[in-house]
């Protein structure tokens, strides 16, 4: 197990290295002087000269990458000229809303999608199955911001049930926090539900064809225990995998959802940074999101042991 | 030796197998209702995009201060580039600059379809080359796949946003920026197909006949990848349309004067409370288009690629 853990962690290193190179290249492939780009439009010549010296821009590009990457490893992602702050501090400050939104979205999605998928597989080919598959194609096709505005229009503006936008810190009370976060989370969870329900249905369907299901039914187990205890338990690994892969989708959705609902999180920071052409922040946020994505998929890989005792690393 | 009599012949003859009429792939594809539904919706949208100038539209960039924020169906005026003021019926209302939403939405169909199709073609072209190279030239495989893993570790929208920020928004940069994060998925697909096809006897035969590697790759292996690639291409097209709209909506895509669905919606955000039509009409067009492409893709997958269809 420890051996596997070490190998699996080691395998993420080249991936993160490639990510780092790609993110580094963002400022180097932009036409113009990297120092001037990093310093922003309002920078003085002294500031630009200082950045040039700090980044070693007079040295070969490999050395430049080494300096930048070394800084990133020690937690220094540079300074944002736009926010006049360290990028790491900016990310730390914006982390809570995004984390809240993502956690609530995943919770809603898993709680809704897994039962839906199991039911659809149980009644394979029936009206519920076909309705769910139809919903899932629809879920992939309706853009998250269109859905967001439909929900805002109906639930917030017409029915007045939930706030239109905004965010309350969890430190100010759990209820106001939840009250502001429900609508964005539901919006964001739809595409995730579509994805997880599809995979749950497919893998439960496959498990239902196995001999042990027939045995379980033959010995008179209640259908619910057959479905959950036998079919779903054996379908857990692909479901865990798709939740991990779907994080990429979720991060993309966070950027849009935070923008629509005016949530001051990392997604909003990304868009604002791009509009201001604030490259240190863009680089920092992308590096951070990719790191989280790789880390979550590492955890998903490790969770296989928990879901399937047959797997031994 | 006696001439064999008729009975002997009868005993020896084997009855010819009855001709089993199998449906051709094309027939199966046409019979699929999802291909029909998605395909017809798409043909309709293409016709709409082509015929945009003759469907009662005005120049989508025209605005008139007197026709601001009109509700759908309202009558108003619009000033042409020649300075003429003409009466115009705003079927879908107007935006806060007095531009006709109907015209902008109809012309936006062009942008969306062009972006979707070009994104798919570009991602497929690069993915095919990388996938063939990676699957056939083993020394390149390691490096190429590590780079692809790296690209796939960055959420697709972030790559697109960063690239557009780098190059600034234009039709070309937006298409390239959306296509790049899709290349690894195509590459992996082609690579896995190549790895199984290269073991087939006909490839072995071609190798032993001395066929050049490039010819084996493009003439023997590629044609056998077409069905799954067509399916993948359809899904990339849907994604391309979606991501372009997201980029424009966030204000980081095509310049705001270009009529795209995302731009119309971005413009409508501020007055959404009073004038939801700015978001509603382009939103419906966007959702229907993406839905049509996705349904077409599902149908193609079910008929062309039954192995993949079972997985999802």
Brief digest:
With 313 residues, chain A is mainly alpha-helical. Chain A has 13 helices and two strands; from the N terminus they run H-H-H-H-E-E-H-H-H-H-H-H-H-H-H. In chain B, strands 1-2 form a two-stranded antiparallel ribbon.
How does this model look, in words?
The complex is a heterodimer of chains A (313) and B (312). By secondary structure, chain A is an all-alpha fold. A two-stranded antiparallel ribbon of chain A has the order 1-2. In chain A, helix 1 packs antiparallel against helix 13 and helix 5 crosses helix 8. The relative contact order of chain A is 0.14. The model of chain A has no long low-confidence stretch (mean pLDDT 87). Chain B is mostly helical and 312 residues long. Chain B is 65% helix and 4% strand. Chain B has 14 helices and two strands. In chain B, strands 1-2 form a two-stranded antiparallel ribbon. In chain B, helix 5 packs antiparallel against helix 8 and helix 12 runs antiparallel to helix 13. The longest helix of chain B is centred in the middle third of the chain and has 36 residues. Chains A and B meet through helix 1, helix 6, helix 7, helix 8 and helix 11 of A and helix 5, helix 6, helix 11 and helix 13 of B.
What is the H/E string of chain A?
Answer: HHHHEEHHHHHHHHH
pLDDT < 50 runs, ≥5 residues of chain B: none
- Give the terminus-to-terminus CA distance of chain A: 5 Å
Q: Tell me, what's the shape of chain A?
A: globular
Give the helix tally of chain A: 13
- Which strand order do you get reading across the main beta sheet of chain A? 1-2
As a percent range, the share of helical residues of chain A equals over 70%
The secondary-structure class of chain B comes to: mainly alpha
Q: Which ranges of chain A are low-confidence, i.e. pLDDT below 50, for 5 or more consecutive residues?
A: none
Order of helices and strands of chain B: HHHEEHHHHHHHHHHH
* Contiguous helical run count of chain B: 14
Q: Which sequence of strands runs across the widest sheet of chain B?
A: 1-2
Please report the two chains with the greatest interface, counting residues with C-beta closer than 8 angstroms to the partner's C-beta: A-B, 50 and 45 residues
Helical residue percent band of chain B: 55-70%
The largest sheet of chain B, given as strand count, sense and whether it forms a barrel, is: 2 strands, antiparallel
* Helix-and-strand structural type of chain A: mainly alpha
What is the radius of gyration of chain A?
23 Å
Report the portion of residues of chain A in β strands. Answer: under 5%
């Amino acid at each position: 197990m420890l051996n596997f853990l070490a190998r699996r962690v080691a395998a993420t290193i080249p991936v993160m290295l490639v990510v780092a190179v790609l993110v580094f290249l963002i400022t180097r492939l932009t036409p113009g002087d990297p120092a001037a780009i990093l310093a922003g439009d309002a920078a003085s010549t002294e500031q630009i000269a200082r950045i040039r010296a700090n980044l070693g821009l007079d040295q070969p590009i490999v050395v430049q990458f080494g300096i930048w990457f070394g800084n990133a490893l020690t937690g220094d992602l540079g300074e944002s000229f736009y926010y006049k702050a360290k990028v790491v501090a900016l990310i730390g400050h914006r982390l809570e809303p995004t984390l809240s939104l993502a956690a609530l979205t995943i919770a809603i999605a898993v709680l809704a999608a897994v039962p839906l998928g199991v039911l659809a597989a149980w009644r394979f080919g029936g009206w519920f199955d076909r309705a769910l598959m139809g919903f899932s194609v629809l879920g992939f096709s309706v853009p998250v911001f269109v859905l967001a505005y439909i929900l805002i229009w109906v639930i917030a503006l017409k029915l007045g049930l939930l706030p239109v936008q905004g965010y309350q810190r969890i430190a100010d009370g759990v209820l106001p926090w939840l009250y502001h976060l429900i609508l964005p989370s539901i919006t964001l969870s739809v595409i995730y539900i579509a994805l997880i329900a599809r995979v749950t249905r497919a893998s439960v369907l496959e498990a239902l064809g196995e001999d042990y299901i027939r045995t379980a039914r033959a010995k008179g187990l209640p259908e619910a225990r057959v479905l959950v205890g036998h079919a779903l338990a054996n379908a857990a690994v692909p479901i865990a995998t798709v939740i991990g892969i779907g994080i990429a989708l979720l991060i993309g959705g966070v950027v849009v959802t935070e923008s629509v609902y005016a949530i001051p999180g990392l997604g909003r920071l990304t868009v604002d940074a791009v509009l201001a052409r604030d490259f240190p922040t863009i680089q920092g946020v992308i590096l951070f999101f990719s790191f989280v994505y790789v880390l979550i998929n590492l955890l998903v890989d490790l969770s296989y042991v928990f879901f399937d005792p047959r797997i031994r690393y | 030796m006696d001439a064999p009599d008729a009975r002997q012949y009868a005993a020896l003859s084997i009855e010819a197998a009855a001709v089993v009429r199998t449906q051709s792939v094309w027939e199966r594809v046409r019979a699929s209702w999802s291909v029909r539904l998605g395909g017809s919706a798409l043909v309709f949208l293409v016709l709409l995009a082509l015929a945009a100038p003759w469907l009662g539209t005005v120049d989508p960039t025209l605005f008139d201060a007197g026709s601001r924020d009109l509700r759908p169906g309202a009558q108003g005026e619009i000033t042409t580039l020649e300075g003429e003021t003409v009466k115009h019926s705003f079927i879908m209302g107007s935006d806060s600059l007095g531009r006709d939403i109907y015209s902008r939405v109809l012309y936006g169909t062009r942008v969306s379809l062009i972006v979707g199709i070009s994104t798919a073609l570009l991602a497929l072209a690069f993915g095919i080359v990388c996938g063939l190279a990676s699957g056939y030239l083993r020394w390149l495989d390691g490096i190429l796949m590590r780079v692809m893993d790296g690209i796939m570790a960055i959420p697709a929208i972030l790559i697109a946003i960063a690239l557009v920020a780098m190059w600034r928004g234009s039709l070309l940069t937006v298409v390239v920026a959306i296509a790049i994060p899709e290349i690894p998925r195509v590459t992996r697909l082609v690579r896995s197909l190549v790895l199984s096809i290269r073991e087939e006897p006909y490839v072995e035969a071609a190798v032993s006949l001395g066929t050049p590697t490039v010819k084996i790759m493009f003439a023997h292996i590629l044609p056998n990848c077409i069905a799954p690639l067509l399916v993948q291409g359809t899904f990339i097209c849907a994604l391309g349309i979606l991501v372009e709209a997201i980029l424009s909506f966030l204000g980081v895509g095509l310049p705001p004067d270009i009529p795209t669905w995302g731009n119309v919606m971005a413009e409508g955000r501020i007055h959404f409370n009073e004038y939801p039509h700015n978001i509603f009409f382009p939103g419906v067009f966007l959702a229907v288009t993406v839905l049509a492409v996705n349904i077409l893709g599902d149908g193609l997958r079910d008929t062309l690629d039954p192995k993949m269809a079972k997985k999802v």
